[in-house]
Amino acid sequence: MAIMWKFWSRKPDSSKSAERAVSGVSIIFLQERFESFTTERLSQAMKKGWRRDLDPVKFFATSVSDGEGAVIKLNEMFITMQFFDRRLDTSALGGQELPQWASHRAHSSITYACPGGIPVGEIRDQFYSLLGLLCAELIDENIVGLLFTEEQVLIRSQSALVQELRSGSSINPTLLAATYL
User: Fold this and answer.
1) Which residues neighbour 139 within 8 Å (Cβ) at sequence distance 6 or greater?
2) Domain encompassing residue 168
3) Three-state DSSP class for residue 132
4) pTM above 0.90?
5) Overall domain count for the chain
6) Is residue 15 domain-resident?
7) What percentage of the chain reaches a pLDDT higher than 90?
8) Does residue 137 lie within any of the structural domains?
9) CB atoms near residue 113 (< 10 Å)
10) What is the mean pLDDT of the segment spanning 155-169?
């Protein structure tokens, strides 16, 4: 028992803490009214967006904490969602005010925490594409816009955007915003 205690009580090597830092790519839905996504709705969106059958070990979703969030498992990846019954704090926008069309009362975030930090270039765009396939199936008339938090890019929700997300093409949020002004 003492050996086990020593193993678990060891201090982590601080030189490796930077390697273990986790950040990732996030998309925030701006919602006219609060809506948390149920396990059933997420499962249907996953099946349709990622064109796969559910698997209880490798491909599933579950809503947690009475609708406060959800966890999605895609092979070895865990994607998290959080649901908030309040407006997005302007600190997430760098203190900027939202345009009138982005008026909302609630928001939800979808995040993939990337080991090693936020990827760059085409790899980052591919992660956004992966999340975009799911987002396209969750977007409805309640969602007024999408915010790509790392890039501080806000895009109005519209049918052409949903079609773009469904295409599976790499998504560069800045170029996407220029397309859907």
Assistant:
1) 29, 146, 157, 161, 162, 165
2) 21-179
3) helix
4) no
5) 1
6) no
7) 69
8) yes
9) 15
10) 95
